[in-house]
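so my prof wants the structure for this chain in the tokens format not the other one, which i didnt know existed until like an hour ago. anyway here's the sequence
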Amino acid sequence: MDSLLVSLFTGAIGALVAIFVTPWAQHFFWSLARRAESRFAAITEINNLWATFLDHAIITERGHGSQLANDFFVKLDATGAQIKALFSSKDLDAFQKVQAMIGHSLKPGVAVHEFVAVRQRALDNFYKSMGVTETSIFCRLVSLIR
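here's what i got, hopefully its the right format
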């Protein structure tokens, strides 16, 4: 009789724990997934904008006329604000260097290959902070939770 009561009590406690813990756990992991999606979308958008700017800089450096879209800098600023909101200040150092090279044109004295190298470091930092380039399972899990 005692083992029956222990079994019923254990089952009831287990059910109550599942009722309260499961929604919290689902919400926690759902939030992590949405955050990761938002961060990847921002990375993709900033990469597309930087690639557009790089194309413009290369064409301009060759002496041909190149015009960026009228809303290019609006999109660049909006995406930059997303990046600043979604990533830690440690991940933003390389991003800030790329943004500093971009004015309304490539800053005087900055070669295109320098821009490419700094842009690549920034993207590497973003993807590393997302755990994409990490090989260790532990590092990947930690980057998801950050």
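also thought this was worth mentioning. The longest helix spans residues 2-61.
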